Amino acid sequence: MPRLPRIEFPGAFYHITSRGNQKQPVFYTPWDRARFLDGLKGIHDKAGFLVHAYCLMDNHYHLLIETKQANLSKGMQNLNTAYTIYFNQRHGRAGHLFQGRFKAILIEAETYALELSRYIHLNPVRAGLSPFPESHPWSSYRDYIGEREPPPWLETRLVLGLFGTDTKRSRQDYRAYVANLRQGSEFCRHANQNGRLPEVLGSPEFIAQIKERFAS
User: Fold this and answer.
1) Whose CA, among 65, 80, 92, 139, lies 20 to 30 Å from 40?
2) Using one digit for the tens of pLDDT, what is the confidence trace for 127-169?
3) What are phi and psi of 60, to 5 degrees?
4) What domains, with CATH codes, occur in the chain?
5) What single DSSP character describes residue 108?
6) What is the rounded distance in angstroms from the CA atom of residue 38 to the CA atom of residue 44?
7) Other C-beta atoms within 10 Å of 192: how many?
8) From CA 166, how far away is CA 161, in angstroms rounded?
9) What's the first-to-final CA gap in the chain, in angstroms?
10) Cα–Cα distance between 128 and 63 in angstroms, integer?
11) pLDDT tens across 79-99, in order?
12) Do 96 and 24 meet the contact criterion of CB atoms below 8 Å apart?
């Protein structure tokens, strides 16, 4: 059965995940993770992607991405391919690094961007890698709460802006929002339903609009 094409359009938001082939690690060293972050800068600069949140685990990663153009597949293919070439050369291996094509869930930002950012930032806590989200250096959480300066390619204003225009207060409120729910979220419950997420996540009105627009 052929794979369905991605739903792509300018201004779309996605939850992106990609896992290691046979669940093998895709990051061995801090240099690997730093190289992947360089790749995020690359898709920002070259493809115009806005990276709203990220988390690098051991055998997979999570991204909250916004595309300015209808170029999700091309940008993500460039990211994963370039990183695979680097990883294979550095660690003396060959073949596929990631398991199949990346997973992309189209989301309604107004409804789910905030909760998805929390879901992404809590991944290390749920996996038992870190006691607190700020203890994991390879996510955007520290950038959100002001413990380090966000890189130019990371966009925190959309999510933090949901808490108001005072940056300091917004960071405090976001920290409290994340700390308020450590064990799961509505987004996490969607993720656990039938073992996967739906391709489109949003209000009934948003889903109806997407179906009408891309039914063919």
Assistant:
1) 92
2) 999 999 999 999 999 999 999 999 999 999 999 999 999 999 9
3) -165, 175
4) 12-202 (3.30.70.1290)
5) -
6) 10
7) 11
8) 8
9) 17
10) 20
11) 999 999 999 999 999 999 999
12) no
